[in-house]
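Q: Got a minute? One more chain.
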Amino acid sequence: MKPALLACLLCGLFAHQANAQVYTGISAEGSVVLSSNEDDTANTLLIEAEKVAVVPPTVLPEEPKFLSEVPAGFLPFIQEASATYQIPSALIHAVILVESNYNPRAYSPKGAQGLMQLMPATAKRFGNSNSWDPRQNILTGSKYLRWLLDYFGDDLELTIAAYNAGEGAVMQAGRKIPKFSETERYVPRVMSIYNKNKRLT
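A: Always. Here it is, folded:
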């Protein structure tokens, strides 16, 4: 048998075998026989291949389902902020929804600006030069959330309260949710949206 033909036959045989022994022999008609199983004709071991581990394909995690409700233009910024500051995208989404309902031009009577309603002093403190820019706003608001989570030892309710009322107000209240009517309404609203969407991640 020609070497090239033998090589082709071996390749075809191995293509379907993860653990292949190749036996050879001569048939009664004088033909070369190749087989993956030893029998009366193919009884000479030609090749013994090592067992090949079959690695299952990598399964990528599904995109959190609630993110399909996020306006498309803002979704990349939420994903970037979540990865950069290691906070759940569900938390960023919940804060934006309560703060501005995804209105990048939202402006409060107290002067808070944009999607995550950043006060100018807070924006400056965390390096934001333009709170009307959606990407900057989301990244800065998320950076502040990360800082608050670290400051309050990952206590989510205190972090959310501080995002609304300021960390100073939470500390003055004895590390509790301040008795401000707005904050007392704000915390459960954000927590409700966060917990609902966290289950969809």
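A: Strands lie at 21-26, 32-35, 44-48.
Q: Perfect, thanks.
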